[in-house]
Design brief:
Blueprint lengths: L3 E2 L2 H11 L9 E10 L3 E7 L10 E2 L2 E3 L11 E2 L3 H8 L3 H19 L4 E2 L12 H11 L5 H8 L2 E3 L4 E7 L8 E9 L13 E7 L1 H10 L6 H10 L5 H5 L7 E2 L2 E5 L2 E5 L6
Parallel strand pairs: 2-10, 6-8, 9-12
Antiparallel strand pairs: 1-14, 2-3, 2-5, 3-4, 3-11, 7-8, 9-10, 13-14
């Protein structure tokens, strides 16, 4: 159990927390979605080097829950927020916000929209000018997701998501997230695209190749992303991933004294 050494910046924070002089920053609820397509490939974005959190890292689409994501007026189809609360081990309001954030952020960051005119249909094309203008309005927070769906006569398809994992940013970090990981299959007819924003590059890549590139240092993968990709390596079809029997486990790396050195330890079963 060696872990990763802390930088001086974080060693100081860790010492202050251990001594009770500093309290951890509260973790914000967040959602991230592993978008899959047959091959088997996943959609990854490289965060801009200027970003305050995870700069340069290859990540899945996702982000923080917006207060409006918990709005009960969000048109909904599929498992209810109450059902999702059981899956995510949260209260119903939090579950509603997490699922809504997962669908909204995926659309904002990839153009993939897990919604349709009814409970058994999915939008076939989101590349038009109106969808693009509304995507930018969602990013700018001048449009709520509930109003976006109502405008287009759509319902959120919660059945197109599957809960996969739960990671909480270490307490020593300056910016922290309590993130639920979901998986989703790219809807037929839709295509993910480079939509810019917080990312400067996007790729479709097999989980196995992403893991190899991460281990060789060719790309930067944060531990939760690396772990999730590793879990997907045995699969060959997106549908099999979505149908996998999955129990969500919560992980939060912790600071520990290892041989007199402060190091960040990832739980043994999440290595």
């Amino acid at each position: 159990m060696r872990g990763a050494p802390l930088s001086e910046e974080f060693r100081g924070r860790a010492r202050d927390m251990i001594a009770g002089r500093l309290a951890p920053v509260p973790a914000r609820d967040a959602a991230t979605v592993v978008v899959l397509r047959d091959g088997l490939e996943v959609y990854l974005l490289r965060r801009k080097a200027s970003m305050a959190f995870a700069a340069g890292a290859y990540v899945f689409p996702g982000g923080s829950v917006d207060a409006r994501d918990t709005d009960r007026t969000v048109a909904w189809a599929g498992p209810s927020p109450a059902e999702w609360a059981m899956i995510l081990r949260s209260d119903e309001k939090t579950a509603r916000g997490l699922v809504c954030a997962a669908v909204r952020e995926t659309f904002e960051e990839s153009g993939v929209l897990l919604a349709g005119p009814g409970p058994d249909s999915v939008v076939a094309d989101t590349t038009g000018e109106v969808f693009e203008a509304d995507r930018l309005a969602l990013i700018g927070r001048t449009l709520s997701f509930a109003d976006f769906l109502a405008k287009h006569g759509l319902v959120l398809r919660s059945d197109l998501l599957r809960g996969w994992g739960h990671w909480i940013t270490p307490e020593v970090e300056f910016k922290r997230f309590d993130t639920r990981f979901f998986v989703a299959v790219l809807p037929e007819g839709q295509r993910a695209r480079d939509v810019g924003g917080e990312a400067d590059k996007v790729v479709w890549i097999s989980p196995a190749e992403a893991v190899v590139q991460g281990e060789s240092g060719r790309i930067f993968l944060m531990p939760p992303t690396y772990r999730t990709l590793s879990e997907l390596v045995p699969y060959t079809r997106a549908a099999d991933v979505f149908a996998a029997d999955r129990t969500i486990v919560t992980y939060m790396p912790e600071v520990a004294d290892v041989g007199g050195e402060l190091r960040l330890i990832i739980p043994e079963d999440a290595r």
